[in-house]
Every structure is written in structure tokens, then in C-alpha cells.
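Action item from last week, closing it out:
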Amino acid sequence: LRSVATALKSLHAQQWAHRDIKPDNILMTRQWDFWLSDFGLAEQLDNNGQLPKPPRISVLPYLAPEAFM
């Protein structure tokens, strides 16, 4: 998980949100390296570090609880 967390930290440092973290989007190599994939829902954050528009719904089982409100 450390490599995935590092990837997310790097994304956030560049003002991006992945928006679709789920097991299917974490790839594993034969050497046990992990890679974050599928940036199709990624969005750039505004100057305040917030998403500029309401979130899009992705996959229901992995939907963030705040998206139900």
C-alpha cells in the first residue's frame, strides 16, 4: 500500500484527485510492485484544494459515503 499511497500523495501535491480508488485500479507486478491505474475520473483541484464541481458517480460499491448525501 505504501507505493499506492505515495502515488496518491504525488497526485495531490500536483492538485489532482484520482476519484476512483478501488482494488481493480491497483495493479500488481510479479515482483510485488503495485501501480495505481485508471485515471479516467481524475480531476484537477481548484486553488483551495477542492473539487470545482459536484462529484460524478463511479462504481456504487466503492462510492464515498459523502456522495450519498
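Closing note: The radius of gyration is 13 Å.
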